[in-house]
C-alpha cells in the first residue's frame, strides 16, 4: 500500500495550519464582516473563536484517539458508523475542494483591481499553475516557501495594525481602548452570529492539519497540540487585528466592501503603504492556497487509496515525487470554475460543509464517551460530554446563520453525496469501502 513519509514536526504542522488560515484574510474580509455585523467585527471573531475552540477540543480528542489521516471522515466512521463517516468525509470534501478556488479567486480579484489591464482569468490561472507545481514537487518545498511567505504576511499585518494605532492616537477624540468596536452600531446577537458564520471561513486550518497525520512525527501527541495552538493563535490574531482596524475605521460605509481594507490602508498609510498591503495580501492568498490544495489532495488520497473515491485517479502516489499527483490535478481542475464564478458564489457554501463536519466530529466525541461506561468522572463528563455538546450546538447555530443560498447549495451537495453513497453500498445494504491507515504498509 502507498504510504507518505513522516517529515513534519509540531512547528511545521502549526505553521502549515496558520498558513492555511491566512491571518491577513482578516483584512481581506473586513468590509464584508463590518457590513454584516454593523461595525462589530471584533465581536464576530470572538464568537467564531469560542465556537471553533470547543470544536478544536473535539478534533484534538479524536486525533489523540485515532492518529490517522482522513480528518472528520475517520473520526466519525470509527466512533459512530461507516455511513455517517462517509457523509462527514463528503462534507469535508466540499469544503476542501472549493476552498483553494475561493482563495485564488480572492487573490486574483485584488490583483485585477490593482492592474485592471491584466485579465482576472490570467491571474487565476497563474495561481493554479504555480501552486499545483509546488505541491506536486512535495511538502518539503512547500514548507520552506510557507516560512518565507508567512514572514512577509505577518510583517504586513503588523504594519497595518501599527498604522491603525498611530492613526487613532493622532485623533484626540478617539480612545485607544474602547468597547465600541465590539458593540458597533448597536449590539445585535443575530447579526454577530451571522458575521461569525462568515468569519469561521478563516479558522479552517485547525482541522486541515489532521489530514497530515501520516506525514507527522509522533502524530498522537503532535496533531492534538497543533490543532489547539492553531485555533488559539489564529483567534488571537483575528480579534486583535479586527479591534484596531475597527477602531481606526468605525464606519460601515465603504467604496467597496469587498476591498474595504484597500481603502483603509490608503487612509492610514497613503499610496506607498497601499502597495505594500497589496503585496502582503496576495502573498497571504498564495500561501493559503498552497496549504489548502495540499490538504485537499491528501484527503482525496486517503479516500481514493481504499476505493471510497476512484482509486486509479486519486489513490496513488507519484513514483518520482511521492505526492498524490492525481488528487492535486483534480483540485486544479475544480479551481478552473473560478473563471466563471465570483467570490460570493464560490464561497457561499464552503462553510456549510465545514459546519456539518464540525458538528459530526463533536457528536463523535459524545458517542465515543457514551460507549465507555467506565469513564464517568466529573473531568471526563466535562471533556467528553459538555465541551463537545457546546461545540455541537455552536456549530449548528452558525450553520443556520448562513445565508439561504449557502444552505441550499450545501444541501444539494449533501443529496449528491447521499446518492453516491447509496450507489457505492448497493442501496445501503453493505458497508462503504473501509480505509486502512497503516503508515508502515
From TrEMBL:
User: Does this entry carry the keyword Zinc-finger?
Assistant: no
Q: What is a single Pfam family found in this protein's UniProt entry?
A: AA_permease
Q: Name one GO biological process term.
A: transmembrane transport
Q: Where in the cell is it found?
A: Membrane
InterPro entries assigned to the protein according to its UniProt record, in alphabetical order: AA-permease/SLC12A_dom (IPR004841), APC_superfamily (IPR050367)
Please tell me one Gene Ontology term that the record gives under cellular component.
membrane
Q: Where is the Amino acid permease/ SLC12A domain?
A: 15-401
Chief subcellular location equals membrane
Q: Has the keyword Transmembrane helix been applied to this entry?
A: yes
**So where does this one cross the membrane?**
12-33, 45-66, 87-110, 122-141, 148-169, 189-206, 226-245, 272-292, 313-337, 349-369, 381-399, 405-424
Write down the membrane topology: Multi-pass membrane protein
Keyword annotations: Membrane, Transmembrane, Transmembrane helix
- What is the protein named? Amino acid/polyamine/organocation transporter (APC superfamily)
Amino acid at each position: 500500500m502507498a504510504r507518505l513519509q513522516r517529515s513534519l514536526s509540531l512547528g511545521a504542522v502549526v505553521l502549515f495550519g496558520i498558513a492555511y488560515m491566512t491571518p491577513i484574510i482578516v483584512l481581506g474580509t473586513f468590509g464584508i464582516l463590518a457590513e454584516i455585523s454593523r461595525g462589530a467585527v471584533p465581536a464576530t471573531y470572538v464568537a467564531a473563536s469560542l465556537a471553533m475552540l470547543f470544536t478544536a477540543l473535539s478534533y484534538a480528542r479524536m486525533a489523540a484517539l485515532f492518529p490517522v489521516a482522513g480528518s472528520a471522515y475517520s473520526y466519525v466512521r470509527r466512533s459512530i458508523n461507516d455511513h455517517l463517516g462517509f457523509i462527514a468525509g463528503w462534507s469535508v470534501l466540499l469544503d476542501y475542494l472549493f476552498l483553494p478556488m475561493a482563495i485564488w479567486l480572492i487573490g486574483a480579484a485584488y490583483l485585477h483591481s490593482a492592474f485592471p489591464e491584466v485579465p482576472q482569468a490570467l491571474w487565476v490561472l497563474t495561481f493554479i499553475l504555480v501552486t499545483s507545481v509546488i505541491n506536486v514537487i512535495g511538502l518539503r518545498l512547500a514548507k520552506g516557501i510557507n516560512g518565507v511567505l508567512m514572514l512577509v504576511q505577518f510583517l504586513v499585518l503588523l504594519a497595518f495594525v501599527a498604522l491603525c494605532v498611530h492613526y487613532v492616537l493622532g485623533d484626540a477624540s478617539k480612545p485607544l481602548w474602547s468597547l465600541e468596536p465590539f458593540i458597533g452600531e448597536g449590539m445585535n446577537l443575530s447579526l454577530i452570529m451571522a458575521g461569525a458564520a462568515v468569519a469561521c471561513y478563516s479558522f479552517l486550518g485547525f482541522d486541515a492539519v489532521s489530514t497530515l497525520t501520516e506525514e507527522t512525527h509522533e502524530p498522537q501527541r503532535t496533531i492534538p497540540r497543533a490543532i489547539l495552538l492553531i485555533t488559539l493563535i489564529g483567534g488571537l490574531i483575528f480579534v486583535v487585528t479586527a479591534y484596531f482596524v475597527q477602531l481606526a475605521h468605525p464606519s460601515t460605509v465603504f467604496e467597496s466592501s469587498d476591498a474595504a481594507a484597500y481603502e483603509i490602508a490608503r487612509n492610514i498609510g497613503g499610496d506607498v503603504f497601499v502597495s505594500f498591503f497589496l503585496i502582503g495580501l496576495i502573498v497571504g492568498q498564495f500561501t493559503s492556497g498552497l496549504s489548502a490544495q495540499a490538504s485537499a489532495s491528501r484527503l482525496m488520497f486517503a479516500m481514493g487509496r481504499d476505493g471510497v473515491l476512484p482509486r486509479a485517479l486519486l489513490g496513488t502516489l507519484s513514483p518520482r515525487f511521492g505526492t498524490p499527483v492525481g488528487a492535486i490535478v483534480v483540485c486544479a481542475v475544480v479551481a478552473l470554475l473560478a473563471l466563471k464564478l465570483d467570490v460570493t458564489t464560490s464561497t457561499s457554501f464552503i462553510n456549510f460543509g465545514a459546519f456539518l463536519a464540525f458538528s459530526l466530529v463533536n457528536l463523535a466525541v459524545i458517542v465515543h464517551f457514551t460507549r465507555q461506561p467506565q469513564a464517568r468522572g466529573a473531568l471526563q463528563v466535562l471533556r467528553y460530554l459538555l465541551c463537545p455538546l457546546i461545540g455541537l450546538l455552536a456549530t449548528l447555530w452558525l450553520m443556520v446563520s448562513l445565508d439561504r443560498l449557502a444552505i441550499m447549495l450545501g444541501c444539494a451537495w449533501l443529496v449528491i453525496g447521499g446518492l453516491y453513497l447509496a450507489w457505492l453500498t448497493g442501496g445501503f445494504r453493505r458497508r462503504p469501502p473501509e480505509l486502512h491507515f497503516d503508515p508502515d504498509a
